[in-house]
Amino acid sequence: MMENVHLAPETDEDDLYSGYNDYNPTYDTEELENDTAFQQAVKTSHGRRPPSKTSLASSMGRPVTGAIQDGVTRPMTAVRAAGFTKAALRGSAFDPLGQSRGPAPPLEARNEDSPEEKIRQLEKKVNELVEESCIANSCGDLKLALEKAKDAGRKERVLVRQREQVTSPENINLDLTYSVLFNLASQYSANEMYPEALNTYQVIVKNKMFSNAGRLKVNMGNIYLKQRNYSKAIKFYRMALDQIPSVHKEMRIKIMQNIGVTFIKTGQYSDAINSFEHIMRMAPSLKAGFNLILSYFAVGDREKMKKAFQKLIAVPLETDEDGKYISPNDDPHTNLVIEAIKNDHLRQMERERKAMAEKYIMTAAKLIAPVIETSFAVGYDWCVEVVKASQYVELANDLEINKAIMYLRQKDFNQAVETLKMFEKKDSSVKSAAATNLSFLYYLENEFSQASSYADLAVNSDRYNPSALTNKGNTVFANGDYEKAAEFYKEALRNDSSCTEALYNIGLTYKKLNRLDEALDCFLKLHAILRNSAQVLYQIANIYELMEDPTQAMEWLMQLISVVPTDSRALSKLGGLYDSEGDKSQAFQYYYESYRYFPSNIEVIEWLGAYYIDTQFCEKAIQYFERASLIQPTQVKWQLMVASCFRRSGNYQKALDTYKDIHRKFPENVECLRFLVRLCTDIGLKEVQEYATKLKRLEKMKEIREQRTKSGRDGSGGLRGRRDGSAGSDGGQNCGAGSRGERLSAQLRALPRMEEPYDSSSNKELDASYVDPLGPQIERPRTAARKRVDEDDFADEELGDDLLPE
């Protein structure tokens, strides 16, 4: 195979166009003076002789083509470029492309030290810095973007100085200077360094060599608007508007919109109306139409509000119909194309534009409906009719639902229910939304049967509605069927994995079923979605407490307090955990903080009073027990604690007065009489005999009651029944006299606690259909190490039960 390969000789330096400069010396006219034959022919008639073959070349001047001269055939000039010249001279191979020349000579080495090369490299570096600055800004690193922009500015100034030294000023790259300054001003503005940005923009605007620099006055107006310098913002907007030609219609419309927004901020609604009306005449847009409605609403012009709303409805949406994305046949190629464009960027932009239009229309309708007519119901009806006649027909049902919510805000529940019931005969999606809200309303009113029926209607109308499934699970949860409730919550999550209500409720369900690991997993997932949700943080802490992991429980409660630092229940809960761990100082800190935010929590007051008694600061415990006696005035134990603290601190006179006051309020209290007897004896008062007599009588009545109770248990059935009836009568008197405080305490516990932030139904929108079936209440702290002040704080005192009066 290699036998047929012929390598070109390395010594052949011929090229494609060689031979063109070669010529016969006969054609050299400069040597004619030295040509003897030519001079002889000129002087004599020798030149008129017929030429011989030997003298033909000399006499005629041009050899005949193909003639042999000096052993060389005259080449054919028409094919000289094809490479025949050297073939005749050297007999080399046919090489029309000059491939036998060998490698090209090396390029001339670049002089790195030349001024032109330095300028070129510096200009390249400036462009790279500007590009890096823009990339850093798009990535959110504003500080780095500003540093790159400043560095580009410094290097660009060095470049200008070097270029002025080498070339004339006319050769300066103005485009590069403009881009560097503009990027620097943009980065200053992005970093909220507004004075520096304005100075940089001013440098660009004042330079007459920059074309179209006047447009940057729009950016300067935006900066003044951010600084709330509205007069200067309007001034610069108008200056920019004057410098933009009328052919740039879109730019002028945007500047007019900025001017209108600025007028709204300054309260000049008439000027704002003029701007937005001009925009709606020239190029109607949703934003301008909505701002025009706001301006008319501010001045209170009802008729103009209606007209502006109709203009807003008439703004073309400029999106394709949804039918475009439905395949008309079973053509696989068409189906593939439709599948490809069904969720592309253009389709997403269309969805966003449609959602924005619906938001503007719904907000405008809710704004003007209560004021354009005599009542909000009539106003809503007018808006609904206008919407039905437009391209946004589907929004009419949403407006009807908003009308029902408006009734709820006015506490007109019957009208709200009647409005929602009108949707029972509508299409499935609207029916499902209305039934979901009805189910939620009935659930809040504890009418679980009605709530369940409407939840079933919502689920049957739209099985993929996560809110309907969540409400159905709530009604099942309220009936105690936790397993079935969990199934509904799971189905809601399968339909919509972002349904946080279903995830929260399924965590509560697992907690109710004592499946703590699964409940913890649910709440941890929810915490990843809702980072600062106080409800979720509390549930995680509570589950760790149930799992007997107080360390983790305390850590999550600390996170909860960082979110809601004034939550007294969370603070008391954390104090109880520290108390159970034996850390009294930390427990006191959190209990005291809880008391400071909510000084009516009996358990916190009780713990603080006991803490001061344990630390031998009885005089400090008095204020807490006095507050407890104000909260529960029928509970004698708090007043006894106050008197005991006076006695322990050595203030016997104050203690005696307190005991006397207690005896006047509770004359049948044995403990009070015992302390009165003891104090009167120690002080030597004459009243000791009176109190001793009363104490003896009460003790005797106690013995009689005990004997009656014992004989009632040991007697016959009939006698026991009669004696029980008598005892029950006495017991009824005892309940009336002695347990009124307990009943009041129970009533106080039943009331909603003002410090609890976890009322799930209070801060939810009705159309969100979120109901917390448990209402995540914080359990009261129950710790084994906490000391009860009414049990063993007074080990030296024997306290007895109350006796009935004779």
Automatic annotation (TrEMBL):
Residues 703-713, 754-767, 779-790 have a biased composition (Basic and acidic residues). PROSITE patterns: TPR. Its main location: other. TPR repeats lie at residues 214-247, 253-286, 466-499, 500-533, 534-567, 568-601, 602-635. Residues 728-739 have a biased composition (Gly residues). Residues 1-28, 42-64, 93-114, 703-741, 754-806 are annotated as: Disordered. Keywords: Cell projection, Cilium, Cilium biogenesis/degradation, Cytoplasm, Cytoskeleton, Flagellum, Repeat, TPR repeat. It is found in: Cell projection, Cilium, Flagellum; Cytoplasm, Cytoskeleton, Cilium basal body; Cytoplasm, Cytoskeleton, Microtubule organizing center, Centrosome, Centriole. It comes from the Eukaryota. GO terms for molecular function: kinesin binding. SMART domains: TPR (SM00028). SUPFAM superfamilies: TPR-like. Residues 791-806 have a biased composition (Acidic residues). The keyword Cytoplasm applies. The keyword Cytoplasm applies. One of its GO terms (cellular component) is ciliary basal body. GO terms for biological process: inner ear receptor cell stereocilium organization; intraciliary transport; kidney development; non-motile cilium assembly; regulation of cilium assembly. Positively regulates primary cilium biogenesis. Also involved in autophagy since it is required for trafficking of ATG16L and the expansion of the autophagic compartment. Component of the IFT complex B, at least composed of IFT20, IFT22, IFT25, IFT27, IFT46, IFT52, TRAF3IP1/IFT54, IFT57, IFT74, IFT80, IFT81, and IFT88. Interacts with IFT20, IFT22, IFT25, IFT27, IFT52, TRAF3IP1, IFT74, IFT80 and IFT81. Interacts with IFT172. Interacts with IFT57. Interacts with IFT46. Interacts with IFT70B. Interacts with C2CD3. Interacts with ENTR1 (via N-terminus). Interacts with LRRC56. Interacts with DZIP1. Interacts with CCDC38. Interacts with CCDC146. Interacts with CFAP53. This is Intraflagellar transport protein 88 homolog. It comes from Phocoena sinus (Vaquita). The gene is IFT88.
